[in-house]
Write a structure and sequence with these properties.
The complex is a heterodimer. Chain A is built from two helices and 29 strands. Chain A is mainly β. A five-stranded antiparallel β-sheet of chain A has the order 1-26-25-24-23, with no helix packed on it. A four-stranded antiparallel β-sheet of chain A has the order 4-3-2-29, with no helix packed on it. In chain A, strands 5-6-7-8 form a four-stranded antiparallel β-sheet, with no helix packed on it. In chain A, a hairpin with a 5-residue loop joins strand 12 and strand 13. The longest helix of chain A has 4 residues. The mean pLDDT of chain A is 96. Helices cover 3% and strands 41% of the residues of chain B. Chain B is globular. Classes of the chains: A mainly beta, B mainly beta. At the A-B interface, helix 1, strand 14, strand 26 and strand 28 of A face strand 14, strand 26 and strand 28 of B.
């Protein structure tokens, strides 16, 4: 393992007066720990989960933790992002709710109405799969191409709304990256919900983020597949109606230099209005996973997954906080790694932290 | 600039009992310097050249430096292609010019041959009748309608006389030497390495078609080709004493949906089997999308240049890290603030080219205070 890059751990940099003061939640892949750290990197709360993540957790406004876990025995368990279990626990780790389905994967979104938006793998009907263009020929999974459904489920597990990707995408123009496998058409990896109920989804395999009309299921807006994005992740809705996305830069079109960016896109104007990349491009790169969150003070929290690094920058790209996870696990096929899917910052005023004891490191 | 990864510089790790003792030579993209450092990271020699690196320098056995320098981007005939060169020179230890040759179409690599000639990689346009048949790449992305390939040219630097030439498009097959689907059709080949083998044959690397090849110097025939399906935008193949080929497999457009990673591998050209491979743990910790170097050392270790992050490191055959250096010299080059090193070389203390040379850090006291290991000690 490279020495220089792994020798600095914990909070490596901090400008307290410029950073958004609060607590950062993250889940090391391959471990069963959800940790909440303060701005000095001390763990102030910890949940011990029954399974490894598939792929992350979120602190809800009611103070519970909602966690996507990996069940590990389903038929798609070897696909990236495989999950299978959604688990909600309270502050003390007691089970509040769970939902199990071997096709659950990657991420989720708890709605204000108490229901949960989830991602599930579904097979593409054979006649459509045959027409889907792109990807490496003959790499379907036992002859099957999978895609995603987005489902809104109640606490009883009842599906009250469903959106099937293959009913709304075009096999001709929603083309799989030429270097990707045809085991999946879309590989959704992010869902975020607008105030009006519309859904922002990120489809990794076809380099596309899309806004789905909740009423009609129509795709109102798409972005990325004309070489604007390269296997993006972490797409999230901002208060101003814009969209923030982690543009990984895997399989970039037309050039080889691997580097990542975080982009803010105005869907109405259809263009990028803010973007961050490192001044030494290769020094910010996560070819897979990746997360980004706009903070209330205008800063952006970025999770550079493959290096287990979470950092915060100002609007003018000044680094004001950086943390490198010291928690390593064996994660086949990657190796021994501190990789993190996504991280979230919660201010001390956050509803979900009300009344919680956060003074003493655990 | 991220802090964790960019705050440790110079030699960050060293196991003297396991590393190959010697001196490491490197140049930096965008800078006119060639440095030699000792195993501790102290600067022991320096050349200040008239041009920035395009792409690197190496120490000849006669003790001279063979250096490839870059013309300014505005003057390059094909600025969008990368690997800008243009100036080739040989200077002695004290930076006196021995010979030079300018060629605006030179790119990526050249060798100074034993007979004093330079073997140069340069650009040449592909005839349109062939261009239309070349498969792969992003449709419609030829450069103003032209596709470029490479020619290897042996030239006498003193007279300019061309002693030998090899045009890639005369020996490759448009049907089967297919451009990577995510590369532009500006280039068919994108040659980034030329190596002269002991028998005079040429070992070369074509990035865009993921292919390394051995060319028979006498006939021009390609004696051996390998790569598609295994290599991904590779650089720096060299032939080892065993006859195997060591190569830096970059991995920028790897066929998979998994993470990017680079690896160095050793392939047996008789069997086309990979007989050794180095990858990091976790795999994505070692990655350079472009460039990259690998050198097998006399003690069996391998010196690897992870170009994009300015890191040179040495591993044993079992993959154990025994030496690591992070380049503290930065430049502002091609819109980036970076410490990019194309290719670095280690020379043992008994190397012919170092005979009689003074290699003490004392000559560079001030530079070592600023850029040597003591500047970065905790």
């Amino acid at each position: 393992m490279g020495f220089a890059r792994t020798s600095l751990q914990g909070v490596t940099f901090s400008i307290p007066r410029k950073a958004y003061n609060g607590y950062t939640l993250f889940v090391p892949i391959g471990g069963k720990d959800v940790r909440l750290i303060n701005m000095r990197g001390q763990v102030v709360h910890h949940w011990d989960m029954p399974c490894v993540p598939g792929c992350h957790g979120v602190l809800l406004p009611d103070g519970n933790l909602l966690y996507a876990g990996q069940e590990g025995t389903g038929q798609l368990t070897d696909l990236m992002g495989s999950g299978g279990k959604l688990i909600e626990v309270d502050w003390d780790g007691d089970l509040i709710w769970k939902c199990e389905d071997e096709f659950l994967h990657s991420t989720f979104c708890r709605l204000r109405n108490g229901k949960t938006m989830v991602l599930k793998w579904i097979p593409v009907p054979k006649d459509i799969a045959a027409k889907v263009k792109g990807g490496l020929s003959g790499t379907e999974r036992d002859g099957v191409m999978w895609t995603d459904s987005i489902q809104e489920i109640t606490s009883c597990g009842k599906v009250v709304w469903e959106w099937l990707a293959h009913e709304h995408l075009d096999p001709e123009s929603d083309v799989i990256c030429p270097l990707g496998c045809r085991d999946e058409w879309t590989h959704a990896n992010a869902i975020s919900v607008f105030a009006n109920g519309d859904i922002l989804a990120s489809f990794h395999r076809i380099n596309t983020i899309a806004i789905i009309d909740k009423q009609t299921g129509d795709i109102k807006w798409k972005f990325g597949s004309s070489h604007e994005l390269a296997h993006q992740n972490g797409a999230t809705v901002l208060d101003n109606g814009n969209v923030l996305v982690f543009d990984n830069g895997l399989h970039p079109c037309g050039f080889d230099f691997g580097y990542s960016r975080v982009l803010e896109i105005n869907p109405k104007a259809g263009k990028v209005v803010w973007g961050y990349q490192n001044s030494c491009w290769a020094a910010f790169y996560s070819s897979i996973m990746g997360g980004c969150e706009r903070l209330p003070n205008g800063n952006t929290l970025i999770c550079e997954s493959t290096s287990g690094r979470i950092f915060e920058i100002t609007h003018n790209y000044e680094m004001v906080w950086e943390y490198v996870s010291p928690f390593y696990h064996d994660v086949p096929p990657f190796g021994r790694t501190n990789i993190i899917f996504r991280a979230y910052r919660y201010g001390p005023e956050y509803e979900g932290l009300r009344g919680k004891s956060l003074d003493r490191p655990v | 600039m991220d802090i964790a990864r960019r705050s440790k510089y110079s030699v960050t790790f060293y196991e003297p009992s396991k590393a190959y003792d010697g001196y490491t030579l490197f140049s930096v993209a965008g800078r006119n310097d060639v440095w030699i450092i000792n195993m501790q990271g102290q600067i022991v020699h320096h050349w200040d050249l008239p041009y920035p690196a395009g792409e690197y320098g190496c120490l000849l056995s006669n003790g001279n430096l063979f250096y490839q320098g870059s013309v300014p981007i505005e003057e390059a005939p094909l600025p969008t292609f990368g690997g800008i060169g243009g100036h080739l020179l040989e200077v002695d230890w004290d930076n006196n010019l021995v010979s030079k040759y300018d060629d605006l179409y030179h790119t990526h690599d050249a060798q100074r041959m034993e007979n004093g000639n330079f073997m140069i990689v340069r650009y040449v346009p592909v005839p349109k009748s062939i261009t239309s048949r070349v498969r792969g790449g992003i449709p419609g992305t030829e450069h103003e309608g032209t596709m470029w390939a490479n020619v290897l040219r042996e030239v006498d630097p003193n007279t300019g006389k061309v002693a030998w030439e090899w045009l890639a498009y005369e020996h490759l097959d448009p049907e089967s030497d297919i451009i990577c689907p995510l590369e532009q059709r500006i280039e068919w080949t994108h040659c980034n390495t030329v190596q002269i083998l002991a028998n005079g044959d040429i070992l070369t690397s074509f990035r865009s078609i993921n292919t390394i090849a051995i060319i028979d110097k006498k006939t021009g025939d390609i004696k051996w080709k390998w790569g598609p399906g295994e290599l991904c935008h590779q650089h720096d193949p060299t032939m080892l004493d065993s006859g195997n080929i060591l190569v830096f497999d970059n991995g920028a457009h790897r066929r998979s949906s998994g993470p990017s990673y680079s690896r160095v591998l050793e392939v047996n050209p008789k069997t086309n089997r990979i007989e050794w491979e180095y990858k990091d743990n976790p795999v994505y910790e070692f990655f350079s999308g472009v460039a990259g170097g690998c050198q097998r050392l006399p003690n069996g270790n391998t010196l690897i240049t992870e170009s994009c992050l300015g890191r040179i490191f040495e591993v044993t055959l079992s993959g154990e890290l025994v030496w690591e250096f992070v380049n503290p010299f930065y430049s502002y080059w091609q819109d980036q603030h970076q410490n990019f090193i194309y290719r670095a070389y280690r020379y043992g203390p008994n190397y012919e080219g170092l005979k009689g040379k003074k290699l003490t850090p004392m000559r560079f006291n001030l530079l070592n205070q600023l850029y040597g290991p003591s500047a970065f000690e905790e």
